[in-house]
Amino acid sequence: MEDGKLIKAKATGVYLDAARPYEKKLGDALFRWFLLYRMSLGIDFIVWNNEKSTPTGTIRKYHATKNTRSGRHEDHLHIEFRSQTGDRDHSDVLKIVIGEVGVALGEPLPPNL
Predict the structure, then answer these.
(1) Which domain, by its residues, includes 35?
(2) Does residue 43 fall inside a structural domain?
(3) pTM, full prediction
(4) Structural domains counted in the chain
(5) So what's the pLDDT on residue 99?
């Protein structure tokens, strides 16, 4: 699919600023873990900080159609879900992702989450 062209699917944005060191570190960790769990979560692709994952899990440079921070996804992580699998409850997998990101950042999750 051509960059900047979205299909009819479900997407979410996680607003983090790649210019801020901690937010970039968090965005990079989320990008990696969402990529790792893309099949379980029904993720089609992810865009963050000028990089885009493909459905097969490879990462390539993202060619923004708008040369802005938002267009280049430097101010948010874009997660595009496949329309059918994106409808499922993914709470258990998301807890794993969030827990592993927390450990990678040195901030484990509280036990009640």
Answers:
(1) 10-104
(2) yes
(3) 0.76
(4) 1
(5) 78
Helix (H, G, I), strand (E, B) or coil at 78: strand
The CA-atom distances, in angstroms, between 85 and each of 23, 46, 48, 89 are 28, 15, 22, 9
The CA distance from 41 to 72, in Å, is: 24
The reported pLDDT for the residue numbered 62 is 92
Q: Report the distance separating Cα 91 and Cα 99, nearest Å.
A: 12
| Terminal Cα-to-Cα distance of the chain (whole angstroms) | 37
Name the amino acid, one letter, at 59. I
Q: What are phi and psi of 74, to 5 degrees?
A: -90, -10
In a domain, 48, yes or no: yes
Averages of pLDDT over each 10 residues, the chain, 113 residues: 54 91 91 89 91 90 87 90 70 77 72 55
- Residue 1 counted as domain residue: no
Q: Could you give the count of Cα atoms lying within 13 Å of 67 in the half-sphere of its Cβ?
A: 0
Query: Cα(90)–Cα(112) distance, rounded to whole angstroms?
Result: 18
